[in-house]
């Protein structure tokens, strides 16, 4: 009888430890996701160089950026043309883009898109505050503001 009670006690302890470990792992995953919310999110451009981005009829699509989950690729739309390239996170706030390539369709709002691409090329840091991403360009002394849209992929 004592042997059965001891076995049940050992099984109960093993079960409790096993459950506790899985909770810790789930919490660790949430912590990791919280530290790197930049990746895998559709970021809609709302402000560039202090000016609100209007969704003019001449734009074929809204301007946005999306950082790949692989930690290397980036893509999006400048308001007319699709773009892609690479990015590098030097630490928790420093960000730089590799060469940005884009399609070359005719756009009535080409000056806006060219400014956006030039801004990305010179971006040096970022900050995320809630659902808002700020890209900073120290050379131009300006920021671009993006808002997360969790419904778009």
Low-pLDDT segments: 7-36
Give the number of DSSP strands. 10
Q: Taking Cα atoms only, what radius of gyration do you get, to the nearest Å?
A: 23 Å
Beta percentage is 25-35%
Report the structural category: alpha+beta
Helical fraction: 25-40%
Mean of all residue-level pLDDT scores = 77
Shape, principal axes of CA atoms: globular
What does this structure look like?
It is built from two helices and ten strands. It is α+β, with helices and mostly antiparallel strands and 153 residues long. A hairpin with a 4-residue loop joins strand 9 (132-137) and strand 10 (142-148). The longest helix is centred in the N-terminal third of the chain and has 34 residues, at 2-35. The radius of gyration is 23 Å and the shape is globular. It starts with a helix and ends in a 5-residue tail after the last strand.
